[in-house]
Specification:
Length: 196
């Protein structure tokens, strides 16, 4: 197993990782790995941070996101194979947004504002390396790494390339007919996704 930095607030982290590794190898140590969490619990901020600003401002504020996470895990027990992990996250459509689409924000998720893709297709699509979404992800990741000090690990954002990305760009109501009416164009937008 590769070397992984320990966690000061989880003294059995090494054994937990051994259980996970064994499970992935189809083996069992003393018991199967167990993770304890509730769906979307990471968005239950309560009074952990200032709710000032728009949803977009809160989603895109690295200091706010890391501070809320830090307060949420303070004094918490991490049982079984549950680990404190900060995920720099802008929602499931962030990969699509990195190509210039605009994200809209809700309390617990975000989504792309759908728009057509020109028929010249993928040739006109380029990842925006200087845009606000990638800038936020970099800033939040660096801030979380700086502040973690062995108390949590830092993950990476939710990435949905290929046909998920095309669905975010166009919307399902446009994508589904496109798959039937113009599969070549769909394959140009997500190469290989339409293969048998």
């Amino acid at each position: 197993m590769d070397t992984i930095a320990g966690l000061a607030n989880k003294n059995d982290w090494e054994r937990s990782l051994e259980r996970i590794e064994a499970w992935f190898q189809g083996e069992l140590l003393d018991r199967p790995p167990v993770r304890f969490s509730r769906h979307n619990e990471e968005y239950e901020h309560g009074d952990l941070g200032s709710a000032n600003g728009t949803l977009r401002e809160r989603w895109c504020d690295a200091e706010y996101q890391v501070s809320v996470f830090e307060k949420r895990i303070a004094g918490k027990a991490f049982n079984g194979e549950t680990f404190p992990v900060f995920w720099p996250n802008l929602g499931p459509d962030v990969y699509a947004a990195l190509y210039g689409w605009e994200l809209e924000y809700g309390e617990v998720t975000s989504w792309c504002r759908h728009r057509p893709v020109a028929r010249d297709g993928a040739a006109g699509l380029f990842l925006d390396w200087t845009g606000p979404y990638l800038r936020f992800l970099k800033e939040a990741t660096e801030l979380a790494l700086e502040r973690s000090k062995g108390r949590w690990w830092v993950g990476y954002t939710d990435l949905h390339p290929s046909m998920d990305c095309v669905a975010a760009w166009l919307g399902q109501s446009e994508l589904c007919p496109l798959l039937y009416d113009d599969p070549d164009f769909a394959d140009e937008l997500a190469p290989g996704a339409c293969d048998d």
